[in-house]
Write a structure and sequence with these properties.
heterotrimer, A alpha+beta, B mainly alpha, C mainly alpha, B: mainly alpha, C: mainly alpha, MetI-like fold, 2 domains, 12 helices, 74% helix
């Protein structure tokens, strides 16, 4: 058995299926004890990366390490790594007890009965030991899959879309549950998902993957507040992207010309030095104010907007504002009673604080990472 | 059976599966013993049979046959036995169609209408066929005989003339074929109907005005793999069968199988028997390939 | 998919506007079941004959006539007709041996085809399919020709029968086991490997138990195909007599009524076997 603890590291990992490059020269360190999410759309290489950590897939190039131990060539059963499979892969011919005890028995653990019982209690399934997987509900099966992997106390637990098959309410519940269990056991969790909300709810650190490479890695707040690419800006939440030109510098900020109006963006949030750029602002960061109503000292303002659509969604009201250059921008306003409700056709200014926008490379696709209807669920 | 948990997996990664579920390596070695068996006891004798079919027909069992690449054997075989071939494929074809029209309602009833009696009905489909095929065919001979109940009944209701008979007619032979190959039709049909989501059939009933249209547009296409394998598993053995023709018919109803059997085992006319066999096999394989192409089911085995 | 419409239609038949249509539908529903049952009854007609005749005391020499008088004699004297029980023994021996061989070889082949990729899979599939597309009379004839040309005339019998039976069962075994394996989720084996089972343990603890229903079904199919085979056996048996050959041999001269008793036993054994298996499965399900 290899060393059971330490950081999980990918060094220069590449995986090709024929001509298709699933994972492209990936370098990644997952710190020991963290809850780490690999987030990306279908086919981005996240599951392939996970399977290479589990030993179910062999990398075309590169190394996988746990601590200082190279596990690249080890067979799956020699690795201190366990997996919660997509749609669980519970053994249908074995009882719940035998499913959970499977790994312990293979390793010849003496008190496997007690450990299995304890683990079933932890996931609140102690009354179900004698049943078969098909007699359990989706949520229960999910917990068995988790118990079956966790009971082995692996150095790293891999979760492949573990909540994908559950309905929304159960998924929310399990997200909190998983987070709690991870905090309790302190094992490194690597969680693969295409659901940005799930990743943000649970993970300490998220790596956003696209086309086999990591676009950006950081805490959920970092990724959301300061995305580096249009893909991240669109894949995590929603963003307004406006074509702009960097014209100069003023203190810690870049001065930007945006369709003839001057805007400032903090230099630490600018990923472009000069020339054309995408100016990005999250819809909830914008405030729509009837034209000429207020003084906006110190804030960025875009004038000349016209409300083209209003939808009331309870906690907030979502506006579409048509700008003079033809683009429609999204504005989400909390229904706190502090904002004047706006009507269709009202002329408005859009106001935001300079610390809330970001500047991205203009060569990137403004639609990258947007949810297409069939991805949505 | 595909997803163990009974819940469909969400957003599968398209690239991964299939590529990895099959390992490259020495796995093909598992194929070797079985393939050897097939090569030695099937391919080799078949090739040998092709050679036999080209022997000089003027030889005999006693004097032996000389290899003269006598392709004329084929022409002779077809010319002398043309009606036998036509009759064989006609009987087998009719029997297959009847099997399908009887087996389909049965399979449909078991799959969707039997409820908790489903498995019991399946058992009933198979059970009779564990009794010897010859015994069953001989029973039919009794049942269909001139004094038997079916003939008398049909004579009473005047479907059959008073001196009419069933035994020793094409009807009896085809009925025997239908009877004996029935489970080969019913079971594949059941297997593919059982996989169909019944809600789709209900939806069809909802979308199309007549149940018949719904059946034609939805149920039948969905069960097509079963129809294809069922008809093949019925048609192929029926083509080569000679027991039904022998026990339920007369030489007037004989099929190619009877001729091959006689040429081989009683006349010892090996070149003739071999060319008849090769022709039969070639025609069956061609029909199967054509049929499978038309039906559009790719993987046959 | 079609869920919403399906729900609507299941709610439909009970409601009033559809009343007339639903009467028709009620009838149509039962009609299919009725036809199905009729077909089943038809398949049992000869079985009824065989069972009835197994209690018949024939007056003449030939037994395939009508019911004359009731007797237990046929049941009490099954082995009385010359060679009947020997033919049964031979048939059992051949079928069991051929079943074991075909199941073993066929299962290995199915595993190779489903679980491994290699060049020539297409050709292998064709070679496996061809015996199924070959009429039995052709297969029997070609085997006999080969045995004769190789000078096996003297050993025609048990060995040649086993060779021939294994051959025609093999493809059916491959197809049956393959169907089961194709439906199996390869993730289950990956999960086992992930849980510290090495290749052999994975096979023994996960793959084999999951493939077992397919393998058992294949073996049953092979056995019934082999036990009942007449055509191929007729070519390859030489002087030995299997049970189907015995029946065939009896059909013209004395037809011993004991044959009907044997037929009835075959039916009953298989029936008890299959029904028993079904009951066992139901009980296990109920207990779980």
């Amino acid at each position: 058995m290899a060393e059971t603890s330490g950081d999980l590291r990918f060094e220069g990992i590449t995986k090709k299926f024929g001509d298709f490059v699933a994972v492209d020269d990936l370098d990644l360190t997952v710190p020991q004890g963290s809850f780490f999410a690999l987030l990306g759309p279908s086919g981005c290489g996240k599951t392939t990366s996970l399977r290479m950590a589990a030993g179910l897939e062999e990398p075309t190039a590169g190394r996988v390490l746990i601590g200082e131990t190279d596990i690249t060539g080890l067979r799956p059963y020699k690795r201190p790594v366990n997996t919660v499979f997509q749609s669980y892969a519970l053994f249908p011919h074995l009882t719940i007890f035998d499913n959970v005890a499977f790994g312990l028995r293979r390793r010849g653990v003496q008190d496997f009965k007690k450990k299995t019982q304890d683990m079933l209690e932890l996931v609140q399934l102690d009354g179900y030991a004698a049943r078969k997987p098909t007699q359990l509900s989706g949520g229960q099966q999910q917990r068995v899959a988790l118990a079956r992997a966790l009971v082995n106390e692996p150095g790293v637990l891999l979760l492949d879309e573990p909540l994908g098959a559950l309905d929304l309410k159960l998924r929310r519940q399990m997200q909190i549950e998983l987070k709690r269990i991870q905090t309790d056991v302190g094992i490194t969790f690597v969680h693969v998902t295409h659901d940005q909300e799930e990743a943000m709810t649970m993970a300490d650190t998220i790596a956003v993957m696209n086309h086999g490479v990591i676009e950006q890695m950081g805490t959920p707040a970092e990724l959301y507040e300061n995305p580096r690419t249009t893909f991240v800006a669109n894949f995590l939440g929603q963003s307004n992207l406006i074509m702009a030109t960097v014209t100069g510098r003023s203190g810690d900020s870049l001065v930007v010309d945006c369709e003839g109006q001057t805007i400032e963006v903090e230099a630490s949030r600018s990923h472009v030095e000069s020339g054309r750029a995408w100016l990005g602002v999250r819809p909830e960061k914008l405030t729509a104010v009837p034209t000429g109503r207020e003084d906006h000292a110190g804030a960025n303002v875009l004038t000349g907007g016209k409300v083209s659509d209003v939808s009331f969604v309870g906690v907030s009201t979502q506006y579409l504002v048509a700008m003079p250059w033809g683009e429609e921008l999204m504005v989400f306003q909390q229904n706190t009673g502090q904002h004047t409700p706006l009507g269709h056709g009202d002329t408005v200014d859009l106001v935001w604080s300079p610390g809330h926008a970001f500047l991205l490379d203009a060569k990137q696709d403004a639609h990258a990472g947007m949810m297409t209807p069939e991805d949505d669920e | 059976m595909t997803s163990t948990a009974g819940v469909p997996p969400v957003a599968p990664e398209p690239v991964v599966d299939g590529e990895t579920s099959r390992r490259r390596g020495w796995g093909w070695l598992l194929l070797v013993p079985g393939m050897l068996w097939l090569a030695v006891f099937f391919l080799f004798p078949t090739v040998q049979l092709v050679f036999t079919s080209l022997y000089d027909p003027s030889g005999s069992y006693e004097t032996g046959y000389a290899m003269t690449w006598h392709f004329g054997n084929y022409a002779d075989a077809v010319r002398d036995n043309f009606t036998l071939f036509v009759r064989s494929f006609m009987y087998a074809g009719i029997a297959t169609v009847i099997c399908l029209s009887l087996g389909y309602p049965l399979a449909y009833a078991i799959a969707f209408k039997a409820g908790r009696w489903k498995n019991f009905m399946l058992v009933l489909v198979i059970a009779p066929f564990f009794t010897s095929f010859l015994l069953r065919t001989l029973s039919w001979r009794t049942i269909l005989s001139d004094q038997g109940p079916v003939t008398s009944f049909l004579q009473t209701i005047a479907v059959l003339p008073d001196d009419g008979r069933l035994l020793a007619t094409p009807v009896a032979v085809i009925a025997g074929l239908v009877y004996n190959f029935m489970p080969f039709m019913t079971l594949p049909l059941y297997a593919s109907l059982d996989k169909v989501d019944y809600r789709l059939i209900e939806a069809a009933g909802d979308l199309y005005s007549s149940p018949l249209t719904g059946f034609r547009r939805v149920t039948f296409p969905l069960s097509l793999p079963g129809v294809v394998s069922g008809t093949l598993l019925t048609f192929i053995p029926a083509c080569g069968d000679y027991i039904n023709a022998e026990l339920l018919g007369t030489p007037k109803q004989y099929m190619v199988g009877n001729r091959i059997q006689a040429a081989f085992l009683t006349e010892h006319n090996y070149p003739l028997a071999a060319s008849l066999s090769i022709i039969l096999m070639a025609v069956v394989v061609l029909m199967v390939v054509f049929y499978v192409r038309r039906a559009g089911t790719e993987e046959l085995v | 998919m079609a869920t919403s419409t399906a729900e609507r239609s299941t709610a439909g038949p009970g409601t009033r506007p559809h009343a007339r249509r639903s009467v028709g539908r009620w009838f149509a529903n039962r009609l299919v079941l009725f036809i199905g049952i009729l077909v089943l009854v038809y398949t049992f007609v000869p079985i009824g004959y065989i069972i009835a005749l197994s209690f018949n005391q024939p007056t003449g020499r030939s037994a395939t006539a009508e019911f004359d008088a009731f007797t237990w004699h046929n049941w009490a004297s099954i082995c009385e007709p010359d060679g009947l029980c020997d033919s049964l023994k031979l048939s059992l021996g051949v079928s069991i041996t051929a079943t074991i061989l075909a199941t073993l070889l066929g299962t290995l082949m199915a595993f190779a085809l489903v679980r491994h990729s290699f060049r020539g899979r297409g050709a292998s599939n064709l070679v496996i399919f061809l015996p199924m597309a070959t009429p039995e009379v052709v297969m029997g004839a070609s085997l006999l020709a080969m045995f004769v040309s190789l000078g096996f005339d003297s050993i025609l019998g048990f060995i040649t029968l086993v060779i021939a039976h294994t051959l025609f069962c093999l493809s059916f075994v491959v197809v049956t086991v393959k169907a089961r394996l194709t439906g199996m989720d390869s993730r289950l084996e990956q999960a086992a490997m992930d849980l510290y089972a090495n290749e052999w343990q994975t096979f023994r603890l996960v793959t084999l138990p999951l493939a077992m229903p397919g393998i058992v079904a294949a073996a049953l199919l092979a056995f019934s195909l082999s036990f009942d085979d007449f055509i191929v056996s007729n070519f390859t048996a030489g002087q030995s007599v299997t049970f189907p050959l015995y029946i065939y041999g009896s059909k013209l001269k004395d037809f011993p009524p004991q044959l009907f008793a044997v037929g009835t036993i075959m039916f009953l054994v298989s029936f008890v076997f299959v029904i028993g298996g079904e009951l066992w499965r139901m009980r296990r399900r109920a207990r779980a």
